[in-house]
Amino acid sequence: MSLVLTLGLFAALTLLYVSADGLLLKAAVGNSWTVGPRDTEADRGPLAGRARRALSNFTETAPAFVALAVAGASLPPDRVWEAGALAYLAGRAAYLPAYLSGLPWLRTVLWWVASGGLLAMLASLAV
């Protein structure tokens, strides 16, 4: 998988997380709060709260993924790196709906899939 494709898929995933957070917030608190100065905290409710926490969790690992993607692009093609990148992207793509659904064990398993992908990418750089 090329660096351009890897980062393109990552960008699409980022937009998905940000959009879910924004749309569910707007649904929970209404348009007047979202277009205003946001001087006070809004009561997000359960679903919009989950979307925000999922986005926060995603952004914790995003810099590591981008760094590993760029570093991996400087090496010869490697199936371990590619499998790791795919595991991260697939795990994170499935993580958002799992988090929104409120299924804790599924969310945790998908977090491990994505984290395992990062570890595979890191390991491929060490050899």
Walk me through what this model shows.
This protein is an all-alpha fold and 127 residues long. The chain has one domain: Four Helix Bundle (Hemerythrin (Met), subunit A) (Up-down Bundle), CATH 1.20.120. Helix content is 83%, strand content 0%. The protein contains five helices and no strands. Helix 3 packs parallel to helix 5 and helix 4 runs antiparallel to helix 5. The chain is elongated and about 50 Å long.
Q: What series of H and E elements makes up the topology?
A: HHHHH
Radius of gyration: 17 Å
What is the tally of beta strands? 0
CATH fold-level label: Four Helix Bundle (Hemerythrin (Met), subunit A)
Please identify the structural class as seen in this structure.
mainly alpha
Strand content: under 5%
Please tell me the total number of domains. 1
The coarse silhouette is elongated
What distinguishing features does this structure have?
transmembrane helix, elongated, mainly alpha, MAPEG-like_dom_sf, Membr-assoc_MAPEG, Four Helix Bundle (Hemerythrin (Met), subunit A), about 130 residues, transmembrane, 5 helices
